[in-house]
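Office hours follow-up: a student asked to see two folded examples consecutively, so here they are.
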Amino acid sequence: MLGFLKEPVVVTAEINVNLVALTVMGLITRLWGLCYPRAVVFDEVYYGQFVSLYMKRIFFVDDSGPPFGHMLLALGGYLGGFDGNFLWNRIGAEYTMNVPVWSLRLLPALAGALCVPLAYQILVELHFSHRAALGAALLVLLENSLITQSRFMLLESILIFFILLAVLSYLKFYNLQRHRPFSGSWWFWLLLTGVACSCAVGVKYMGLFTYMLLLAIAGLHFWHMIGDQTLSNVSLLCHFVARALALILIPVVLYLSFFYVHLALLYRSGPHDQIMTSAFQASLEGGLARITQGQPLEVAYGSQITLRNVLGKPMQCWLHSHTNTYPIRYENGRGSSHQQQVTCYPFKDVNNWWIVKDPGMQQLVVSNPPRPVRHGHIVQLVHGITTRYLNTHDVAAPLSPHSQEVSCYIDYNISMPAQNLWRVEIVNRESDTDVWKTILSEVRFVHVNTSAVLKASGLIGASLPEWGYRQLEVVGEKLSKGYHQSMLWNVEEHRYGKSQEQKEREVELHSPTQMDISKNLSFMAKFTELQWKILTLKNEDTEHKYSSSALDWITMDTNIAYWLHPTSGAQIHLLGNVVTWASANAAALVYVCLSLWYLVRRRRRIYDIPEDSWQLWVSAGGVCGGGWAVNYLPFFLMEKTLFLYHYLPALTFQILLVPVVLQHLADHLCRSVLLKSMFSALIVAWFSSVYFVYCTFSPVTYGQPALSATELKGLRWKDSWNILIRKQ
């Protein structure tokens, strides 16, 4: 029974020494002196704020992309014991002792280091020689810009890591397809492709470019499979389902999970949640949730409410009125109704309170039992403090003459009767009998007499003059096609009115509510709102000293000063290896020219290279050249502030193309022994120059040692480079 113990248990393993050596060198170049400088470096001032908010569980919205990358940076802070207490207010600020600098920078550095062996393996899976793969890895290893970007609390190295991992995983899956479909390793690499793609998109939306490329390649490969007569219909269906599951369904689920974890971690109210809807804010701990806790859910006749405009642009605001009236005549000579002003006020105020009144009754209190207001009901809105009725009429609004003025009606005993009936339309209702709900219902108020819709003015950013206290304009929109968010309002604060007397009611308006109703949003509702805010929220793009255009990147006519020592000449710049960038451009140009030449010749039935070499050439171009194109060309269509680091994912793919072209030239153009020897010597000399440039610019890649003014001037190889030199 124990006979198997007669022989020793032997485990054998194959170790790729090249891969191990490259990984070690990648770790050394990225991790060496990682804590230096112990100061905020460039965009660390931006990402550090989000790390602190994660540590404190405070909700935020970042319009630059999804939350997965931010969570990875926060993980580094968590592992280092960071408490989130640091003021991220300026580049160059010295980190306090509670900031675990090494831990915060560790994950980007590890991701950058692992890009080196990934580059090696990608070339191997593309069926190029180990020498070509080693060359690709060494070019990535010695690329100064990739080193700089991976040594700080930034996201580009993490993005590039997941992009390369997705490409490698798909190539391994595709190579297994021919021999072992549906095997364990086949499933592993296919699923890892989908996971890596989702992670890349979750770090930055730039990852979507490579994801789309891989989907296109996978679609092309499956199209070729359809023509394979050896595969049955059932087998093709299984292949299709497997790819759809791994490359579409799993990435979508994983992407949703990033937001689920993000929202689970950030449950506290903060400064960013003000751009979210009232329902979203009420789901967060503190802030609005503290104010609205215990409010009645159903709005009834006699309810005291505040109405928040759903749009929230240019800022959140509430329907508001005060005792002041519109001027008899505006500065442009137009006249007004001289009625009480109604505005949208961006601060909480007692004058934001309104009472929902039944037009057929005089009482301003909630009956027992309450009579809820439903979709389609006619109401009057009475201003809580002045007791005047919300009104609109055929008088031009002060800033929007094409729209109607909205006011609180004052009876001047002239031929201008009150027009204060409004129909409640619940836009997000499930049925036509829905009850108007606090926080949850988005409502349009349609004026019964004129069919105008109550709207926060479309003049985004425009505010009333001094006579209107610079508050935002509210109008009656005559043409009300669709449901623009500026026409939608939701009840934010709500209580059941109990006091019929005005003085008692004013006291009541300042009092807290008593009832307890839960208003938690579902995850999908919160995800949908947050995702929409990320996609549509745009900060004002301002010209930055180091911003650049996409055309500047190819020839590296620009750089970015990341950090400058306050006293010495030590500094860190985002600058690439000039030889590598020039070689990558040359390789891309040679690839395009040779491809066109081969295509024309093949059209004439002239085959310069064997068919397997042609297929290898095309597949490498699809992955490396296609990766460069999809990660670079879209920037010409983007209206945003661009920086040199946006080019790094495209550059990485272009670098992979260099050894592809070199091996092709060596195999098919250098036919004699002499030519091969000369070509090898040129490659050695070329690679020596790559290493020389890496060493030359290392002081501004790592920030040490400090250079003198003369040495810094010697690094200004282009007049357009902004190398910082202190005046003596």
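And the second, which I mentioned at the end of office hours:
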Amino acid sequence: PAVAAAMRLGAVLNALRPALPLLLGLSLGCSLSLLRASWSHGVAEERCLAPGRPAPPDRGAPPEPLEGGPGPGHEDFRPRIVPYYRDPNKPYKKVLRTRYIQTELGFHERLFVAVLTSKATLNTLAVAVNKTVAHHFSRLLYFTGLRSTKVPHGMVLVAHGDERPIWLMYETMNYIHQHFGSDYDWFYIMQDDTYAQAEQVKALVTHLSINQDVYLGRAEEFIGGDEQARYCHGGFGYLLSRSLLLKLHPHLDSCRNEILSVRPDEWLGRCIIDFLGITCVSQLQGQHYHTYELAKNTEPEKEEEEEFQAALAVHPVSDMTLMYRLHKQFSRIQLDRAYQEIQDLQMQIRNLTALTPAGEAGVTWPVGINAPFLPKSRFEVISWDYFTEQHLFSCPDGSPKCELSGASKADVSEIIVWALEQLNRRYQPLLRFSKRQLLNGYRRFDPTRGMEYTLDLLLEAVTQKGHSHLLAKRVSLVRPLSKVEIIPMPYVTEATRVQLVLPLTVQDLDYVANFLDMFAMNTLDTHDNALLTLLFVYHPYDAQRVGQVDVFAGVKAMVGELEKRYAEVKIPWISVKTEVPSQVKLMDIVSKKHPVDTLFFLATVWTEINMEFLNRCRMNTISNWQVFFPVHFQEFNPALVYRGEQTASSSTDFLRDGHFDRHTFAEACFYNSDYMTARTKLAADILDRDEVLESMEVFDVFLHYSGLHLFRAVEPGLVQKYALRSCNPRLSEELYHRCVLSNLEGLASRSHLAMALFEQEQANST
């Protein structure tokens, strides 16, 4: 029995052995917790207090209030939930929140740049500044005393009406504070005879704290003044922080009346010193403001001093040519630095990759660029496009062969030249290559790394002794994707009024009722800021009989019912007589009857208006910048798709049985001012040949006669039911062909058409 008991005990211990560490850990933890709790309780009961010193509160006990401070008896100490209450006697007002969270949180833009110019140098040095650095800054304004008769293109000019230097500086500081003081963290002020390295200035402000009062530039001593006080020389530019500008603004009037000076930069420096006690510095928070003073007859291309290459600002620049030469030289310096940095990074990558498990085999080509995309199935394979020096064998319009021209031709030429440069750099002086012919060219766009090229080149190789021979060599190149940049766009809101324009013909009468019902439900009932104008297009025959039989009488009656239902709404209509309802001619009539700042939405009778799309129309259309041509979703013919079955109506089937119609450009969002500008250029081009307008749409007007961005994108908010459009044979061949293609592709998908043909063949065979 003893042996049996020992065996059973051993079996139990063997079974519990894996759980022994867990049991021991739990026991030890519980014991330590009990000991710590009893020790803490003992300390709380027997604490020693210094004479006259209050005892600290127990753990978990509520804090005792200080004298005069809030405590448990003060309601303000604890957070309270304030219930929402709206006065029923006051009308409801829709709360418009900011579009971007950055605006709502009070974030500021980084840098504002002001350039001080004059009437004499506005068309010379100021233009040179605008062409060299303006595109690097998000906001740049030019300030002058007297306005020139003509402001150069692309420049925003503020004229104060007085050429006196001190007055110009005073008014400029007031203007900056009033219009931009609450929007920017830094303010950079420079003259038009200053060349500034824009990227270096932008990098400087990113390394400075915005919590300090900053007056940074080239520090100069006052003539006959305090040796400790310094002002920033205006010729080399200077940087002011937002906090300093806010503190300085109340004293500007006093500075104007009390401080006498000839130079505006000295006047501003004296004002900052006298009223704020802040002097100009050339170094702050470890950042240096490097400058370089140009001597007469300086050759920028020959300047190799370290002081010149590190300069943020160069002064004085005497003429436009010197400004462009400086910009070219500094651009070359920055480019050389970038290439050297790339080589250093590639060397570091090679050294580090050798220590990885993959070893040197893990180094991708080019070094530092992402590896090529690896498809997981045959549907993800990126195809190569074949080209020669004259032709491209993968054309945008689907044709098998087209002439290589435009940007594609420039791209191929640049790649060939670059390939030869790299070959000569690698093999010289032993061999020197020259191109004879491009045998084969292949390219493809890899979204993970950029554009890839493979070239088969027929080269002539010349040795050092002058011997030459022909050889074929294959080279591979990559044009990598560069740094992604956010393009600054003008700020727009969702509060803009949208003017809907609906052209109607006799063929559209069956669909008008549905359009008006959707318009009333989605805009009038929701009080959306949208209006509607109807355009009745009469055929000449119908126009002659309008006194007896008006083909649009039913539509006018429906409009009257809407105006009775919504007393504050008026829906005007315009009657037009024509045989060929050209979209451009119809838009000309509507454009003349509306203000220039009107936002138009050109709709069709099949368009179903909704608030979601109207907001996107407002946001995607920017005056003097961008027009919006949405691609609506066209549902397929239900007779072919469902073949007698019940139509699916659940939300999961949204945008399933249809396609985005790329062949129609009937819907458009644009501002009247932009249309009028493009239309004026079109009129000057075609003179009095109005028949040309019959072959054009509004899209063509903006495409060929405006410099605006044409935003063409799919729009899931525009869903149209299936309808067989009537194509007018009097329109141009291209417009008629696009209309026919839209009808054909809108029937059904290939699988639905194949199933319909199969069922028809089965029915015929039986």
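Two things to take away from it. The mean pLDDT is 84. Residues 385-480 form a domain with the Nuclear Transport Factor 2; Chain: A, fold (CATH 3.10.450).
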